[in-house]
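Appendix C: a fully annotated inverse folding record. The material below is reproduced so that readers can follow the format used throughout the book. The structure is listed first as tokens, followed by the designed sequence.
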């Protein structure tokens, strides 16, 4: 069946209380939005969740799709080793995505060895697991391939999901500009707020097809990490009927965090959750 829902989410480790130790309250809007994502996915009850992460194992010349039978990851890098996830991998859906991608001549690798689940995936999964755990995982990386290849890869994901019997949710993980403030991780550039304003406007208006037309020079100067995740997401949504709701945006630490949801099932309206 077609994708049930798609979400774009950020992945700051400090959103997890064991890492943030109170600092997560400084991005309360994002925190509440992530809780809502978890609650909505629990309502959908997907059999599989696909996570696109900028921090998954990366190859410049191809996408990497997890194909081992289970994956583990924890937040030891962020001084919270007890925060961990262990998920069974949906090898069947991973193989379908691989096949559909090859049909479009998109270079992909089925990674059959153990992959460590990175924080780009752990952060959203942490909030999903608070409300729902009975799902399999497919973890997908970005690549150094073209914008068009990322868009077509998203189309391949959607087509593979459409031939899958269970419900599937797609998570596009990625932060926006890292140059919003002088005291941010990369300092300030005027392009940072401009980039975030354009992206959030597209998300608010459901104009996902426009995301791939963003000036690459602007994106580079904004020091983003989520654009290619969003382009894959836009490919997955392209040509489909969906309703969208923009949950929140903020950037008090010099990094932009946006949360937005897209519903593709007529019978699954966004829940009226706090």
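Designed amino acids, in order:
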């Amino acid at each position: 069946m077609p994708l049930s829902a798609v979400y774009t989410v950020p992945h700051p480790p400090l959103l997890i209380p064991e890492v943030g130790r109170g600092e997560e309250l400084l991005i309360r809007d994002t925190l509440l939005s992530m809780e809502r994502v978890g609650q909505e996915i629990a309502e959908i009850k997907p059999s599989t969740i696909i996570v696109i992460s900028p921090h998954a194992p990366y190859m410049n010349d191809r996408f990497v799709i997890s194909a081992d039978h289970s994956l583990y990851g924890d937040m030891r890098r962020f001084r919270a080793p007890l925060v961990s996830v262990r998920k069974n991998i949906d090898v069947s859906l991973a193989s379908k995505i691989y096949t559909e991608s090859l049909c479009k001549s998109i270079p992909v690798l089925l990674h059959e060895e153990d992959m460590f689940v990175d924080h780009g995936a752990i952060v959203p999964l942490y909030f999903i697991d608070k409300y729902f755990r009975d799902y399999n995982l497919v973890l997908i990386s970005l690549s150094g391939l073209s914008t068009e290849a990322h868009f077509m890869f998203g189309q391949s994901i959607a087509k593979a999901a459409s031939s899958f019997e269970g419900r599937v949710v797609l998570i596009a993980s990625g932060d926006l500009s890292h140059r919003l403030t002088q005291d941010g991780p990369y300092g300030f550039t005027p392009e940072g707020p401009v980039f975030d304003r354009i992206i959030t406007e597209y998300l608010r208006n459901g104009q996902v097809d426009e995301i791939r037309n963003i000036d690459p020079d602007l994106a580079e100067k904004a020091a983003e990490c989520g654009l290619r995740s969003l382009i894959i997401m836009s490919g997955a949504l392209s040509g489909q009927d969906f309703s969208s709701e923009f949950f929140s945006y903020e950037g008090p630490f010099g990094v932009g965090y946006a949360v937005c949801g897209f519903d593709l099932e007529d019978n699954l309206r966004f829940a009226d959750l706090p």
